[in-house]
Amino acid sequence: MAQLAQQLVEFPLTQGALVTLVPGVRRLVAHNAGPMTGPGTNCYILGQQSLTVIDPGPVDERLLDAIQSAGRVAQILVTHTHRDHSPAAMALSARTGAPVLGALIDDDGHQDKFCQPHQALEDGLWIDGGESPVQAVHTPGHVGNHYCFWHPESGLMFTGDHVMQGATVVIIPPSGDMGAYIRSVQKLKAFPVRYLAPGHGHLMADVNNYLDRLVTHRLARESKVIDALAACPAPATLEQLTPMAYDDVDESLYPVAAFSLWAHLRKLQEDQRVEEYCEGHWLYDKARWSLVTQDKDSPT
């Protein structure tokens, strides 16, 4: 089993090739490698004859042909409506007549506006249109309409952009929410998952330890955000805080890191640890928030 797990985790990713991960589950990597997508977006195909397709990715005739060559498409599931995951869903549906299942949110400038699911997802919904059922698991955080899909037959949890291999997920407010993200990561620990099947990268084993490390990383970053804010003599902007809170990443990533920084600040505001002094300017008063913490911990 250990040898099998190593093979699954280290299996090379090849764009455009149908690769069997476990019996009844295949992976197809889109031709969209890049700084934000890694080796490309993973499309997963469940079943042998009556197929469930998860995240067909951007519109690409080569990938649509490859999906259809795998069998009859019964249904198409979308983890979320970002443009590297969902655009091909409607194109594949038009080709095959298969329904699209997903969730929509208000456009925040980052959404695939052309995705119109035929059925809305709900947390806990069992979907049984293919050869084996999957369960929709609402995992807001990266974005508010994000869902993972639990496949008990294989023990795989298909995580979209909720959990990625080799990179941390960008949280983009206002739909992205850091507090919700941390809770959603912990939520996955309730499932007996053998492997996490991410939207980008390889399968991941040692699931609960990996999820714990994600939460630890986010909380460590949160501490750096507080330290950066506390070091500023006046209310600080994202532009001022990003180089301080993300001094361990390349400067080219600062514009992306600023989104997650904003999400951290919004969470800290909800936790009553920082204050948005005025629009886009954040304040941390150590003495004030120490008193707030003491008051919250005091017996009533």
From TrEMBL:
- Note the InterPro entries from the entry: LACTB2_WH, Metallo-B-lactamas, RibonucZ/Hydroxyglut_hydro, Sec-metab_biosynth-thioest, WH-like_DNA-bd_sf
What superkingdom does the record give? Bacteria
Q: What is this protein called?
A: Beta-lactamase
Q: Where are the transmembrane segments?
A: none
Query: Metallo-beta-lactamase domain: which residues?
Result: 40-200
Organism lineage: Bacteria, Pseudomonadati, Pseudomonadota, Gammaproteobacteria, Cellvibrionales
Pfam families according to UniProt: Lactamase_B (PF00753), WHD_BLACT (PF17778)
What CDD domains does this protein map onto? Answer: metallo-hydrolase-like_MBL-fold
